[in-house]
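Incident log, support desk, overnight shift.

02:14 A customer reports that sequence design results differ from what the structure should imply. Their input is reproduced verbatim below. On-call engineer (initials T.W.) acknowledged and began investigating.
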């Protein structure tokens, strides 16, 4: 005799949460970034994600929600804050608080290709569906000392329909060269753009501006844009 389980006892597939945007924040923690700069970057993103302009941009999306994860990259990649759905000030504050607590987890020299592929994996492995998927990549060079090449990883990410935006951290008068390198080698996909942080004073402003553009799904007037000082 075949025994039939009542329908209510059968396992049901997990329902994917739907948001407007899945956003991977890939932040540089390689050897050229000291501990103070790691903490400074985290503080800049924590300040930006809770800013009224960013919260307004989130509330103005089709679903009123985005999903964000913060990952530091170097020779390895480490998730600092796992996927979090931001649907208002309380969720944004919780994300910001978790961002500031963990110790540094990524070390070593640049592995940009591997970092981009980890961003893709994190998007594809979560239980979230979205209208748009973006990897937000920041760093202070385009050196790639191990792992997949930037070109191969970038092509794989773009083939999956994921956009890559760039936040070059500029120093030592290399502003134009690094911004152009990001434009030519890193970014890609629909609406891809570069917003450059030219100093510690402009970093939080650059992050805020970039988040608003990414969440709204709009491009800056110019592809390579330098954040204005507050």
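02:41 Re-run completed on a clean worker. Output:
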């Amino acid at each position: 005799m075949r025994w039939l389980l009542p329908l209510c006892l059968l396992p049901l597939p997990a329902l994917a949460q739907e948001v407007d945007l899945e956003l991977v924040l890939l932040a540089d923690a390689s050897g050229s970034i000291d501990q103070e700069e790691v903490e400074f970057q985290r503080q800049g993103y924590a300040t930006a994600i809770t800013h009224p302009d960013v919260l307004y941009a989130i509330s103005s999306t089709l679903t009123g929600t985005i999903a964000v994860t913060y990952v530091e990259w170097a020779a390895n990649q480490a998730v600092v804050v796992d996927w979090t759905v931001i649907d208002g000030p309380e969720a944004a504050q919780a994300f910001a608080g978790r961002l500031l607590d963990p110790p540094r987890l990524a070390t070593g020299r640049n592995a940009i290709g591997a970092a981009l592929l980890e961003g893709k994996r994190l998007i594809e492995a979560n239980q979230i569906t979205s209208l748009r998927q973006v990897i937000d990549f920041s760093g202070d060079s385009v050196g790639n000392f191990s792992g997949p090449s930037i070109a191969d990883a970038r092509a794989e990410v773009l083939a999956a329909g994921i956009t890559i935006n760039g936040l070059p951290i500029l120093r030592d008068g290399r502003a134009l060269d690094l911004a152009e390198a990001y434009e030519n080698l890193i970014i890609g996909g629909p609406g891809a753009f570069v917003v450059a942080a030219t100093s510690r004073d402009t970093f939080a402003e650059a992050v805020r501006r970039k988040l608003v553009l990414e969440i709204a799904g709009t491009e800056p007037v110019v592809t390579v844009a330098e954040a204005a000082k507050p």
